Amino acid sequence: MVNKSLPINPDTALASTSHHSSPRLSFHTTIFLSLGLCLSLGLFSACNEDESAGEGSLTVLFETEDLVTEGLEPGDSIENIGDGWGVSFDKYIVTIGKLDLHLSTDESVEVEGDEAYVIDMTELPEGGLELWSFDQLREGRWEFNYATPGAGDGSTRHETVSEADYDEMVTNDWTYLIDGELSKVDGQSCPPVDLVTLADQVPNGRTSGDNLCYDVSEVRFSFGATAETSFGPCEIDGVPGFAVSAGSSQTVAATIHGDHLFFNGFPEGDEGGVKRLAQWVADCDLNLDGVVTKAELETISPSQLPEIDERYQLGGSPITPLENMYQYIIAQLKTQGHYQGEGECPYDGIAHVHHDDHDDHDDHDDHGDDDEHDDHEDHEGHEDHEGE
Ligand SMILES: [Ca+2]
Q1: Fewest beta carbons within 10 Å, which of 77, 226, 255, 267?
Q2: In angstroms, what is the span from residue 91 Cα to ligand 1's centroid?
Q3: What is the whole-number distance in angstroms between the Cα of residue 219 and the centre of ligand 1?
Q4: Structure pTM?
């Protein structure tokens, strides 16, 4: 079925920084306009007959999750934050692109979407943003790969991103720029006692391990991160990529999740058993100024946070060892690339357990609670850890 919505005109939707003159985008706009003309004249079948036999077209959307645009609520259900904090995102900027599609049966038949776009996911329209379109794809099954590169190597600013934020993304070659807020009426922050720097705050009398706690009801987190990652080949429900049939149009979506920095581990495959927790983030505000920064996150090792306890399984991290909580966040960001919503994409070529056969979910006992924080080398590249 032909996508009913008109394609976004890249000339207005994308404020190009002249890294790309985007002739290809204009070309595709023309294609869509032509298709629209055929449709409007009731000549769709006639137009289709003009296409080469055995070829179809593809539209690729970029989408995220509701929780990025609407926030996460505290509570006990699966998508809630389990320790009482609510989360909202003011900015969730990501660099996405470098599409690499190739025919499953013949890797030499490939199509690339070299563009990388810097986009604020909190501003994505419901139903996703159309970023790429391809025509004359050969009939058959195709593999779908994409990336979250750094912004510094020829990216294009989307209109959802300010010039200033874009410049910062490019200068630092960041993949992400995230700005959000934790909120909890009776919240507290319990920074590691060896690292905390105080002005005149008075502890509230409670402790987390050896760390004194301080009343806070709101904590911002604001940082950029380089988390360059390739994703793919992607699949959904065990079915790889997408199918092109002759004369038809297909639409698929690259989906970036937004809540992995609150995960209590590194699930691969089904995220159904994951807990979302945020207290540790509040505990990283070392100077208790109400904002958790990259510098603070870099100062704190996982073992200095009593909150990172037996509820967490750090095996399976894309980065090992995890020396500090900034690395932990980057590691989580490197797992956020998905396909068609919850479909899986291996990151950086590391094969995941894909749960094609859902029998292997219950072998958690082999690994987990007794893992020491400094022992992650053993987990690198393993395929035997589960996220449930
Ligand atoms: Ca701070």
Answers
A1: 77
A2: 18
A3: 9
A4: 0.78
